Amino acid sequence: MSRRIKAAILALFFGGLGFHKFYIGRTFQGVCYLLFCWTGIPQVIGVIEGLSYLLKTDEQFEEYEKSQHLL
Question: What is the reported pTM?
Answer without folding.
Answer: 0.88
